[in-house]
Amino acid sequence: MNIDLSRRGFLKLAGAGVAATSLGAMGFGAAEAAEQAHVRAFKLFSTTEVRNTCTYCSVACGILIYTKGDRAAGETAEVVHIEGDADHPTNRGSLCPKGAALKDTVHSATRLTQPRIRRPGSDKFEEITWEAALDKIARALKDDRDANLIQQNAAGVPVNRWTTTGFLAASATTNETAWLTYKVVRSMGIVGFDNQARV
Predict the structure, then answer these.
(1) CA distances in angstroms from 76 to 29, 79, 162, listed in the order given
(2) How many CB atoms within 10 Å of residue 182?
(3) Secondary structure of 18-84 in the HEC alphabet?
(4) What is the pLDDT of residues 151-189, one digit of tens each?
């Protein structure tokens, strides 16, 4: 089929097409209205997004946690979705199966949220406060260091070694946190120092 179309006719036809599609795109068409009526809202539209680090291993993958509930209004924020952070340089949005199941871990009925202690002679654990747990740890460290710190070796050279206690650090931290942890542990004299990246 051969259409004889002048330059002026082509411009008129093109202008009419642009006007018709523009009106349709602005929602003046019945088809557009019907389409919009069936489109559901994005499921994470009303959530709050928080960046964090996966808790499982030493890789330190970045995650995005989505919560519902306005904490400023006194509501409890509930985790509704967790996914990999596409902007994170370590994992670039991907997660292993354990990381992909983090939401189930958060909502697990057996997840520990408080420190627990099993007293001597007891057959069960009981919850204690964080303050009590940290006080107990500090007391145990102080007592052990006072009893077992080696201040000098056989030649009389100061060594300040504490070999009866070890320290397992987190490897999913920043360089600054790792440096500070190293300095604190070494300043106490602890020789046994590692993190889960090597375990």
Answers:
(1) 43, 10, 45
(2) 14
(3) HHHHHHHHCCCCHHHHHHHHCCCCCCCCCCEEEEEECCCCCCCCEEEEEEECCHHHCCCCEEEEEEE
(4) 999 999 999 999 999 998 877 777 888 889 999 999 999
In the numeric block, which tokens belong to residue 113?
Answer: 């949220």
Q: Helix or strand or coil: residue 187?
A: helix
Antiparallel, parallel or unpaired: β 126-127 and 150-152: unpaired
CA distance 194 to 127: 28
Q: Which helix (H) or strand (E) holds 161?
A: strand 158-169
Separation between Cα atoms, residue 137 and residue 117, nearest integer Å:
11
Query: Counting beta carbons within 10 angstroms of the beta carbon of residue 173, is it exposed (0 to 12), middle (13 to 18) or buried (19 or more)?
Result: middle
What is the rounded distance in angstroms from the CA atom of residue 101 to the CA atom of residue 83?
Answer: 9
One-letter amino acid identity for 9?
G
Contacts of 14 (CB under 8 A, 6+ apart): none
From the list 59, 57, 55, 58, the residue with the least C-alpha distance to 79 is 55
Whether the full predicted model's pTM is greater than 0.90, yes or no, is no
Tell which residue, 163, 162, 165, 167, has the closest CA to residue 189. 162
